From TrEMBL:
Keywords: Cell membrane, Membrane, Transmembrane, Transmembrane helix. It comes from Gordonia insulae. It is found in: Cell membrane. PANTHER family: UPF0410 PROTEIN YMGE. The lineage of its organism: Bacteria, Bacillati, Actinomycetota, Actinomycetes, Mycobacteriales. This is Major facilitator superfamily (MFS) profile domain-containing protein. InterPro entries: Transgly_assoc. Coiled coil: none annotated. The keyword Protein transport does not apply. The chain crosses the membrane at residues 6-24, 31-53, 59-80. GO terms for cellular component: plasma membrane. It is a multi-pass membrane protein. Belongs to the UPF0410 family.
Length: 89
């Protein structure tokens, strides 16, 4: 991720996970550690999905990386909420 290393992944992932949890209205249920994990996993999901369309996330800078993490984190939260919703029925 643009040479930022593990600290960069944690910072970008944490911010993306936090913003995604606010967008998806799960912020009260998640702590900082879960926000970081959701953001990092969301970045992996977003990067994977973009690679299917031959889009290189590294070439577009920090803002695009953040948006990729954010979109992937929102998708992850949505999928988890759908799975949890189905298990309650």
């Amino acid at each position: 991720m643009l040479g930022l290393g593990i600290i960069g992944w944690i910072i970008i992932g944490g911010l993306a996970g936090w913003v995604a949890s606010m967008i998806m209205k799960t912020n009260a249920q998640q702590g900082i550690l879960l926000n970081i994990v959701v953001g990092i996993v969301g970045g992996l999901i977003g990067g994977f999905l973009l690679s299917l369309f031959d889009v290189d996330v590294k070439g577009f800078g920090l803002i695009f990386s953040f948006i990729t993490c954010l979109a992937g984190a929102c998708l992850l939260i949505w999928i988890v909420s759908m799975v949890r919703g189905r298990t309650k029925v």
